[in-house]
Amino acid sequence: MRPFAEAAERNRAPILAVLQRVFADTRRVLEIGSGSGQHAAHFASALPHLVWQASDVAANLPGIREWLADPPPLELDVDRPFPRLACDAAFSANTCHIMSWPQVERMFAGVATLLPAGGVFAVYGPFHYGGKPTSESNARFDAMLRARDPASGVRDCEAVRELAKSCGLALEEDNPMPANNRLLVFRKGT
After folding, report:
1. Whole-number percent of the chain with pLDDT over 90
2. Collapsed DSSP state (helix, strand, coil) of residue 36
């Protein structure tokens, strides 16, 4: 049976609207943390000009294969070296708040090593601004995450922007999304 995440069904259209624009000149995208595989399947079919490379930790790969098999999803654990892969863009949804901050740092560093100059990294999820939640629902979500795992939690957009900058990635866009989420678009410098 295919894994299914209701949130992935709900947010795929608004995310795609941004990705169609920012990935217009892209040929190969690495998705980090593909989860159920629903985004990978939807975006790959909606953006036929590119190769959508799904990836996740080993435990999630069988479920992703239920959604798409070509190209086969890669094992990618941010706690290990990134695979050598030619890509000109990367995408990650709902990962920054699940990972510890050191893992977020490793994800950005790994993406920065893979992307060529001008490459794009699009990151979707909830973010705080100025250290404060943007909504009551995001505050509750953050409290739930931290109660479950103190190393996780909704990240501060300014901290993520500074992390990206330290990796040579500049924030180009901060797109509002439904359900108090954002789609941040970073570009690697020359």
Report:
1. 91
2. coil
- Residues 155, 128: Cα–Cα separation, whole Å: 6
Measured CA to CA, the distance from residue 155 to residue 124 in angstroms comes to: 12
Parallel, antiparallel or unpaired: strands 89-93 and 28-32: parallel
Token digits of residue 62: 């069988």
145 lies in which domain range?
A: 6-91+101-188
Nearest Cα neighbor of 23 from 1, 39, 5 is 39
Which residue reads 């069904």 in tokens? 9
Neighbours of 75 (CB within 10 A): 13
- pLDDT tens-digit readout, 142-158: 999 999 999 999 999 99
Number of domains, the chain = 1
